[in-house]
Each structure stands twice: as C-alpha cells, then as structure tokens.
Amino acid sequence: KESKETKAPSRRSTRISSKSQPEAKETPKPKRAPSTKKRAVEDGSEGAKATKKVCSKLRTLLGFFFAVKADPAEAGPALGSFLPEITLKSNKEVDVEVALLAKEKGVVLFLVPKADTPGCTNQACGFRDIYAEFTSAEYDVYCVSADPPAAQSKWQEKKSLPYSLLSDPERKLISALGANDKGKTKRSHFVFAKAEEDAEGKGKLVDKHIGVKPVDSPKIALEFIQS
C-alpha cells in the first residue's frame, strides 16, 4: 500500500535570503556643463560690466583733462605775449593800432559781451568809478566789445564812461585774447605793461582773467597793478 502520508516540502534556509544584499552604488551623474547659450550670456554680462567700469574711469579722466584745459587761467595768450597787431575802430570811429596802445603807458583791456546790458554796465561802471586810480598808476583803460561804434558811443554817454571803447565786430582781438566762445565774448580783462625800449612800442601781457565776475574785474585789475 502506498502511504497516504505526504512529505512536507523541504525548507530552504531563510538565513541566506534574510541577509541584506549589498546596495548597488549609484554612479554619480556627470554635471552638465552650462549650455553654450548660457555661457555666452554670462560671459557677455561679465564683459559688459568690465567695459562699463573702464568707460566710467575713462569718462572721469577725460572730464578732468578737459576741465584742466578749460581752466580760464590757461586760456588765451601766455603771459609775456605782446599786444596783437590788429587795427580796430574806436567808439569815435577812429582807427586804433592795438599793438601800440602800451607805447607810452600800461594798458588794461576789459572785454564785455554786449554794451548797455546789466552785467556789462556793472563792469564798465566799476572801471569808471576807480578810473582815476588807474591813470595815477600810469595805465590807460579800454573797453572792448563786438558792438558797433555807434552803440558804444551811446552807452558811453549814458553812463559817463571816461575811457575809450574799441569796436571788434569780427572778433579779431577778442579771439586773439582767447575770449571768443562760439560767437560770444567771455567777460574778462587783460593787463599789459608799458612797452620796453627794445619792444618797438609793444606792451607785454602781465596779468589776465577770463570768465571774471563784473564787480570783481575792476578791483582785481587795480590790485594787480598796485601790488
């Protein structure tokens, strides 16, 4: 007789299966290099910053350079220069040789933008009020503007100006003295010493102020002469 008993299935050891299997190490994924487009943007950004910084420094340097060049003390003829050889009409319609103005005395030339205007009148009257002190120091005074002689004569009479005025409509003298600014006259004054014996009657520039204030101009010129 066949035995009706059935054999129990053999048990496999669970020790082996229960043992923890070593975890598979994940291979680190290589970092992706930034895309060419992103690199280009970043490089462009850095380049733009550097360029901006350089441009800023350059602007600063150029601003300083032009500020120095535009310094009124450096504009116009150098000290020691002679009066330019130019002939102008006086307010009396008489020809005046500018180069020979300092043949007998020293000369102060003060330049105004336009006759009979507030600032110019302040400057002109300032020289009028202390004119006697200039003459006592052996200096003549002349006012120079681009106005026609008729306008200058009218202004002279109106304000009782004791000195002569020189008409420079073509701005020859104004330009030679460095006071012409795109067709406008820079308020200024120039002091020329009496000509030396070997200078053929030409006086030398000994002081100048370009861009001076109306009320200051007469005082500064006189103080220099008296110093």
Give your account of this protein's structure.
By secondary structure, the chain is of the alpha+beta class. 37% of the residues lie in helices and 17% in strands. The strands form two sheets. The chain has a seven-stranded mixed beta sheet with strand order 2-1-5-4-3-8-9. The protein has a two-stranded antiparallel ribbon with strand order 6-7. Helix 3 (118-129) packs parallel to helix 7. The longest helix has 34 residues, at 36-69.
Please provide a brief summary of the model.
With about 230 residues, this protein is an alpha+beta fold.
Secondary structure layout:
Blueprint: H1 14-18, H2 36-69, E1 87-90, E2 95-97, E3 106-111, H3 118-129, H4 131-136, E4 139-145, H5 149-159, E5 164-167, H6 172-176, E6 180-181, E7 184-185, E8 188-192, E9 205-210, H7 216-226
Parallel strand pairs: 3-4, 4-5
Antiparallel strand pairs: 1-2, 1-5, 3-8, 6-7, 8-9
